[in-house]
Structure to design on (179 residues):
């Protein structure tokens, strides 16, 4: 079941299970025998990823809801006929491949390329990232737009003298400190 939050003339939809990426993989870390299960599954998953796992597809909810546009603000998305904005936060798998398994690299490449190709616009946070995404995925400058991230500090009030005194005491900080 989808959860809908209304904000003016916009709706924030937390999708149905059919429109979300599977989250089961994290569960394999925390039970006895997890390593043995991973060792059995790794060759199977590697083979599936090597032949390009099918990407998640919309279950029809967004198409039937009459949306004009869908924004995927994270690197997870799904295939849909509704115009979209895709926001790949990084291409670390290409710049720092030593931190990724070959399977994860293939999976990210498969999905990021497909979602960038599907998108009406690809949103990135810097000019450097725009050049990087254009170069790596063959996108046009018109398709990739820089949308700087809002500084999180603007969401919080300026700390009062009491807040600073409390933080100094709680964390045993000197009178002058920087975070």
């Amino acid at each position: 079941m989808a959860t809908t939050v209304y904000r003016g003339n916009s709706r924030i939809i937390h999708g149905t299970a059919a429109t979300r990426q599977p989250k089961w993989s994290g569960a394999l870390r925390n039970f006895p025998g997890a390593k043995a299960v991973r060792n059995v599954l790794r060759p199977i998953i590697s083979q599936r990823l090597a032949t390009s796992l099918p990407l998640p597809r919309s279950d029809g909810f967004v198409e039937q809801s009459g949306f004009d546009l869908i924004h995927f603000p994270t690197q997870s998305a799904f295939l849909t006929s509704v115009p979209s904005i895709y926001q790949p936060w990084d291409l670390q798998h290409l710049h720092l491949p030593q931190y990724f398994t070959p399977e994860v690299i293939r999976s990210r490449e498969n999905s990021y390329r497909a979602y960038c190709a599907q998108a009406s616009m690809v949103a990135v946070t810097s000019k450097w990232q725009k050049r990087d995404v254009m170069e790596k995925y063959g996108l046009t400058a018109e398709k990739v737009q820089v949308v700087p991230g809002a500084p999180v500090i603007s969401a919080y009030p300026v700390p009062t003298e009491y807040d600073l005194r409390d933080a100094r005491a709680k964390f045993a900080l000197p009178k002058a400190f920087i975070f």
About this structure: Residues 17-28 have pLDDT under 50 and may be disordered. The two ends are 41 Å apart (CA to CA).
